[in-house]
User: Fold this.
Amino acid sequence: MTEPTEKKKKTQIPRNPMPEQEPKVRARNFDEVPFGYTPELAKLEASRCLQCKKPACVAGCPVSIDIPAFIGLILQEDFRGAARKLKEMNSLPAVCGRVCPQEDQCEKVCILGKKGEPVAIGRLERFAADFEQKQGEFTLPPMAPPTGKKVAVVGSGPAGLTLAGDLIKKGHKVTVFEALHKAGGVLVYGIPEFRLPKAIVQAEVEYLEKLGVEVRRDMVIGQIFTVDELMANGYDAVFLGTGAGLPTFMNIPGENLNGVYSANEYLTRSNLMKAYLFPQYDTPIALGKKVAVLGGGNVAMDSARTALRLGADEVYIVYRRSKKELPARIEEVHHAEEEGIKFHFLTLPVEILGKDDGWVCGMKCQKMELGEPDESGRRRPIPIPGSEIVLEVDMVVVAIGTGANPLIPSTTADLKTNKWGYIIADPETGATSKKGVYAGGDIVTGSATVILAMGAGRKAGDAIHKYLQG
Assistant:
């Protein structure tokens, strides 16, 4: 009998799960759910990588990380070297290792995944980035000599931070203008502590500041300064990475009742303003006992799991399509189910019911069935006549998507937007209709993923660098 080849041996090593909190325990605290890999688990998982000569995983990554190289460094126990390798292409590896949908990107095209489970690239990225942060020693990358050019970055979300990190290393002076009192954009106001600890985001922002990026907080561009005023004040280029944070509602009766939140407000109160630590932090938040969350994306999962941790007895996800069409990450849906979130699929809210005192007491819903695919490619939900039900709830969180804030387009001449209010920009360069002004991330595409916003920041950074060079 012939000995199995080295490649065959690697394919026989099972994918290593991350240790995590027990569901019943974590459902009542805001601590991070997974504990992360130990060095031993990280090395074992890294040993599964085939080190392909033409790695499809690199092409599957929107910021083109050299994935085999950083995994190879983990296998050699050069964990800090792995973190440095990640940071060559990714300014936020500790964030991406936690919230990126690797199952739809780099891991989706991993060769091992064709016959088994792909290498846990995201978990290894998190491990290397966390190791460096815990060591507290950062090796700053090589920096180009100063060019004398200044770039204003509006918004400190994933797109803006990525672009800022890229351009500061190329010798340009970069100032980030953030409307809120904390930098990080959706990473700090939108994603809960149990999924992305805010200390992680803060450390990534501080790293960029060590590189020389200036971050100015409490700066609402469009009010304090317009884009034209920034350019008149000596900025040679402006990047707009303001995200898509305008809440969307269903426009059904009862949405103005007390106890109805947009997911934006609900998560911002809890995450950025620390309402989950009330009264230590002076931010009130309604505490429902039976909470319905409308929607099926990651924001809906975050809202539902937050409500549970704030003390709800029962939390429902109400979604008009079936489980198969849920846009949320598989891991987030799995965690929600483990924690006891109840799912009402093929269910459409049609009215929110209230008591005489103006507070929510229930929600009337229509049961649905799936028909032919619509323009999104998913099967269209169709109402089933006579199938109305009433859910007994005392709080509703609407998490059905967001829109573009009109503040910057309305105060910036010559900046073209589409019919939904998103800024029109070249998908390869981020160039807008206004010379010297670039845009990327959710303000261009509508709500998408952290890593796609980072990819847009990377492309716009390359284009701005060429523009500044003349």
Observations:
- The first strand starts at residue 150 and ends at 154.
- The two ends are 66 Å apart (CA to CA).
- The longest helix spans residues 450-468.
- DSSP finds 18 helices and 16 strands in the chain.
